[in-house]
């Protein structure tokens, strides 16, 4: 049912209940044009609202007839199909956002989602590398393998160093330009300030932040920049991009993931590495060293400190391990 392109505000489905379909269409337009949600987020919202429309159509219901019992039954059906509590919560959140907006617009007499709650799920700890493994990944293998393209190696090192140095999301990294551009055919969303050693990024919810870039990362970025070469036929957006893929276009998030997996293998790490693992490592190691939760929150761009507090659990886990290994009374008696 998902369209191949980013037609976020298109009608949900031809057989959807008319009032609900119209409301979904208007709500998606609002999310795109007013709240300016990221394209991938809009695709997820549209998928979730498509599901609501399908279920309402199958039950012969339109918006005014929706009740809390229907939403609970549909959430239970999702659970029965094997959907995780976290995914069910996300879907209910999308439904709730639509229904609340409809109530505010006078389309519904009451909000049927008010007393519908998602199943509780234990929040998993984020996976972070040890300091030794994070440094090994950023530095790379001791010697370059024969036949390795120096340009690819420089790009992979710069990506790993920057992710670990500054805790960027992969979407923030691929959106970076080599320098700020403001032209008719391209306006930078993020860029590197080479003099200040800072990255200006556009994060979730359109929030901007400035994060420091460490000396090792700056060195790796300059080495990459010396080899970076945009083809003459590249678009303005691609010519401005900090990281270019093998074909000369702005690098994709998928390509970043592939290069990190390959680099982790070359560096001899025990398991695969993904970009968000380096963000987790950045936050965990910084918190272990500084203990400054608020500073880590600002650097990560978290809207709420509650999102950052999960790293204190990682920190406690590390401290508990040290205690178990070092304290003479922590070991079980023989």
List keywords for this structure.
334 residues; mainly alpha; DNA polymerase, domain 1; hpI Integrase, Chain A; 2 domains; four-stranded mixed sheet; two-stranded antiparallel ribbon; disordered N terminus
Fold and architecture overview:
The chain has 334 residues and is mainly α. Strand 4 and strand 5 form a beta hairpin. The protein has two domains: 87 residues, DNA polymerase, domain 1 (Orthogonal Bundle); 192 residues, Intergrase catalytic core (hpI Integrase, Chain A), CATH 1.10.443.10.
Task: Show the helix and strand layout.
Layout lengths: L17 H16 L5 H20 L9 H13 L4 H20 L26 H9 L10 H17 L3 H5 L1 E2 L4 E2 L2 E2 L2 E4 L4 E5 L5 E5 L2 H13 L8 H5 L12 H14 L8 H16 L2 H8 L4 H4 L1 H17 L8
Helix pairs in contact: 1-2, 2-4, 5-6, 6-8, 6-10, 6-11, 11-14
In short:
This protein has helices at 18-33, 39-58, 68-80, 85-104, 131-139, 150-166, 170-174, 215-227, 236-240, 253-266, 275-290, 293-300, 305-308, 310-326, and strands at residues 176-177, 182-183, 186-187, 190-193, 198-202, 208-212. The chain is mainly α and 334 residues long. The strands form two sheets. Strands 1-4-5-6 form a four-stranded mixed β-sheet.
């Amino acid at each position: 049912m998902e369209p191949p392109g980013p037609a976020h505000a298109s009608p949900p489905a031809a057989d959807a209940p008319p009032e609900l379909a119209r409301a979904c269409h208007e709500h998606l337009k609002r999310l795109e044009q007013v709240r300016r949600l990221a394209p991938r987020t809009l695709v997820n919202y549209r998928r979730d609202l498509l599901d609501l429309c399908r279920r309402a159509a199958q039950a012969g219901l339109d918006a005014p007839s929706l009740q809390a019992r229907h939403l609970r039954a549909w959430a239970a059906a999702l659970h029965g199909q094997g959907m995780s509590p976290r995914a069910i919560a996300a879907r209910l959140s999308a439904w709730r956002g639509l229904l609340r907006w409809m109530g505010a617009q006078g389309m519904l007499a009451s909000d049927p989602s008010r007393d519908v709650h998602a199943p509780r799920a234990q929040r998993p700890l984020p996976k972070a590398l040890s300091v030794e493994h994070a440094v090994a990944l950023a530095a790379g293998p001791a010697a370059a393998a024969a036949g390795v393209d120096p340009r690819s190696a420089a790009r992979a090192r710069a990506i790993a160093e920057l992710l670990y140095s500054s805790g960027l999301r992969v979407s923030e990294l691929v959106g970076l330009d080599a320098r700020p551009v403001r032209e008719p055919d391209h306006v930078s969303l993020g860029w590197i300030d080479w003099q200040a050693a800072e990255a200006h990024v556009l994060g979730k919810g359109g929030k901007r932040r400035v994060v420091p870039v460490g000396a090792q990362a700056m060195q790796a970025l300059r080495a990459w920049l010396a080899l970076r070469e945009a083809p003459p036929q590249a678009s303005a957006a691609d010519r401005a991009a900090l990281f270019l893929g093998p074909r000369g276009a702005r690098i994709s998030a998928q390509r970043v993931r592939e290069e990190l997996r390959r680099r982790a293998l070359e560096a001899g790490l025990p398991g695969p590495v993904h970009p968000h693992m380096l963000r987790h490592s950045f936050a965990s190691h910084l918190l272990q060293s500084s203990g400054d939760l608020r500073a880590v929150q600002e650097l990560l761009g978290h809207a709420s400190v509650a999102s950052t507090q999960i790293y204190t659990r990682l920190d406690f886990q590390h401290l508990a391990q040290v205690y178990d290994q070092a304290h003479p009374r922590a070991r079980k008696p023989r």
